[in-house]
Design goal:
This protein is α+β, with helices and mostly antiparallel strands. The chain has one domain: B-lactam Antibiotic, Isopenicillin N Synthase, Chain (Jelly Rolls). It is built from ten helices and 16 strands. An eight-stranded mixed beta sheet has the order 3-4-12-9-14-7-6-5. A four-stranded antiparallel beta sheet has the order 8-13-10-11. The chain has a two-stranded antiparallel ribbon with strand order 1-2. Strand 10 and strand 11 form a beta hairpin. It starts with a strand and ends in a 15-residue tail after the last helix.
Length: 378
């Protein structure tokens, strides 16, 4: 019990007792419902449970920085003609190089994935979360190696505060799940969207290779496009968005991430110590550099922190496709690309497998400083 002492107007001392906050028990009770944040939102809660209270969301300096976020915007790159017009391709490569070095984020339009596929993918995610709770509970799991993993907060038991978000994810490459292991409400579109994103990913790695001054096939040849993890997020409407986060600030641990977001918004990127809104653009996809690409480019391309703020409007849905073999076994070693290092620019990182990097990153939960310094030489 927690005791608080007070003094009344007549000078009498009073002692009041309050039940001690038992975070572990409250986390387990929430997890045991298997209904996630959406279950809380659907129940009509007007106060969010204390396990979601996030001190980061109360940081006034971060609120102030976010308030001025409309003055600058994340770079946008138009892929129209990039495969047919050499001069156009040169412009695109330069824009990607600049964005990857300074922002770590950019949006792409005319990327080749039909708008109908993007819309159906978002609808498929909505259909999954709108299923009867009993159906979803059957899929709820903390086993990261299941063909499809659905839960709320992968780091629920290790992070200081929970995020206002539910997720289902699956490893779609190099070893995709059997179709019957995918939810029927979004099975077909998940397979089709994956096919389209894998194709776009290979093109992005070609352009990124050229932006590094390498052979266009370099990043694909070393396996950057080999693995794909697709994570489908749901951020329900939050009654107290000022007290929590949709996603705490973090950097992604893969090579690149391709993000499909809906019209609601909430994604912010940390640029020059200010939070900048990544405003939704119809038909666009958001691309960001991951830790592993920063590592193999010897810090030339930047993996930057980003977050999602909670919102009274929702549910917001997004689909993050991470190019990484993640926790799947692989013996491939990744270190700074030899063509990018020299006597004046020596390797800054030791070689590491994707599995070991991701395992170290996940063990730290979604909060804290970047894992990259742990792998630096010296």
């Amino acid at each position: 019990m927690i005791r608080k002492m007070g003094v009344s107007k007549n000078g009498e001392v009073s002692v009041t007792t309050h039940p001690e906050y038992d975070r572990a028990s409250e986390v387990k009770a929430f997890d045991d419902t298997k209904d996630g944040v959406k279950g809380l939102a659907d129940s009509g809660v007007t106060k969010i449970p204390r396990i979601f209270h996030n001190l980061q969301s109360l940081d006034e300096s971060e609120k102030d920085s976010a308030s001025g976020s409309t003055q600058v915007s994340v770079p946008s790159v138009d892929f129209a003609g990039v495969g047919e017009d050499p001069s156009r391709r040169k412009v695109v490569v330069e824009k990607i190089r600049e964005a990857s070095e300074t922002w770590g984020f950019f949006q792409v339009v005319n990327h080749g994935i039909p708008l109908s596929v993007l819309e159906e993918m978002k609808n498929g995610v909505r259909r999954f979360y709108e299923q009867d709770p009993e159906v979803k509970r059957e899929l709820y799991t903390r086993d990261p190696l299941r063909p499809l993993v659905y839960n709320s907060n992968f780091d629920l038991y290790s992070s200081p505060s929970a995020n206002w978000r539910d997720t289902f994810f699956c490893f779609m490459a190099p070893h995709p799940p059997k179709p019957q292991d995918l939810p029927s409400v979004c099975r077909d579109i998940l397979v089709e969207y994956t096919k389209q994103v894998m194709k776009l990913g290979s093109e992005l790695f070609e352009l990124l290779s050229e932006a590094l001054g390498l052979n266009p096939n370099h990043l694909n040849d070393i396996g950057c496009n080999e693995g794909l993890v697709v994570a489908c997020h749901c951020y329900p409407a939050c009654p107290e968005p000022e007290l929590t986060m949709g996603a705490t600030k973090h950097a992604d641990d893969g090579f690149i991430t391709v993000l499909l977001q809906d019209h609601i918004g909430g994604l912010q990127v940390l640029h020059e110590n200010r939070w900048v809104d990544v405003s939704p653009v119809p038909g666009a996809l958001v691309i960001n550099i991951g830790d592993l690409l920063q590592l193999i480019t010897n810090d030339k391309f930047k993996s930057v922190e980003h977050r999602v703020v909670a919102n009274r409007v929702g549910p917001r849905v997004s689909v993050a496709s991470f190019f990484s073999t993640s926790l799947q076994p692989s013996s491939n070693l990744y270190g700074p690309i030899k063509d990018l290092v020299s006597e004046d620019n020596p390797p800054k990182y030791r070689e590491i497998t994707v599995h070991d990097y991701v395992a170290y990153s996940l063990a730290r939960s979604l909060v804290g400083t970047s894992p990259l310094p742990h792998f630096r030489i010296g």
